[in-house]
Amino acid sequence: xxxxxxxxxxxxxxxxxxxxxxxxxxxxxxxxNEPIRREEVDRLVPGQTTAREVVAQLGAPAxxxxxxxxxxxxxxxxxxxxxxxxxxILSFLNDDTCADRVWLFFDAADVLTHAGATLQAxxxxxxxxxxxxxxx
Amino acid sequence: MRSTAILAALRVAxxxxxxxxxxFVWTRDRSFQKPPEGALDGLEIGKSTMSDCLERxxxxxxxxxxxxxxxxxxxxxxxxxxxxxxxxxxxxxRWQPSFSYADADARLRGPVLFFDKTFVLEGFQTxxxxxVRLQTMRTRPAPVP
Lengths: 136, 145
Hints:
The complex is a heterodimer of chains A (136) and B (145). Chain A has 136 residues and is an alpha+beta fold.
């Protein structure tokens, strides 16, 4: 009988502990724009590809910057991974934002002159504040 | 009398903690990755071209017009670590689902490279991207209707 009560008490403690801790963990993922594919960027040839062809291939840019009589287009895909948990009065929250970015520079005739690409959106991680991330 | 006051204070403190009004919060917010180590080494003012720089540093975060025909390219990242005791009184629920470049550049730090009208490296500066941008960006006048 005493053994039974002890088992019930342990179970109850476990249920209470789970109820306190389990609902306090969360992860979320937020994205902005569409992923950029490496093969699509590799198809762009400086000195040949025009702004019209770029827009036909990649869609509308996120930003157009005027540089005198030249222009630069920005394409990006941003991923933010957020992880957190709370234990009664302690809260830990971590945001990690990484991006795929492409900048394309056009001359006055709208022909591509320079292209720069960094594809790192896949590097975003769900981590805790005390954990270090490579490259950050 | 004194013990009653202490007891009351303890009860209020207990209520605050248990209801989540007072909490210890450790937040860390990391945005983007730093340019590769040593990427700026070997770049020469007056010689290195924009192609050289894009190849070494990858795509910048920001581009803006510099001295009319030139360009400023900025790379940056941020790592904000904050530990605080928070007292929360919920008055309004607000949720910002998207990342905003305009909000972020206040926290981002990194190199900014300046190119002349032939897109040859003219100079560079390192620091808070928003500050460098404000110092060097020329605002165009609004078009006359």
